[in-house]
Amino acid sequence: MDERLAKDIQKFVDGPAHQRIQDARESLQIWLMAAAAIRDGSLDKAEQSIIAEAMGQELLRKMLDLFSGCGVLEVQQIVRDKLVDSIGFYQSVAPNDYSEERPKLEAQVARDFSQADFC
Fold it and tell me: Which of 5, 70, 79, 103 has its CA 20 to 30 A from that of 63?
């Protein structure tokens, strides 16, 4: 009985914290992918496909909507700002997890977008 109660308490208390960490990690992944995708000044179909496969078609659509009507420099600024925001959020929510996961996420994005020199 005590074990079940402890699990319920842990789920209730830790659940929201774990969700915030997961949200922060996903946000960083999204904006790292966007940064890699637009490095060459465009977001081509192959890069869109990589993003959609990793994060879903709905997220890709939202990203494209955000970029719609913007010039290259404006898109680059949006991505840079969102990346800085996502880094700050992740560091504030889970600094140790951030330090451990960021290099892994960067390496994965570099592989996915065939950019050995990414970050």
Answer: 103
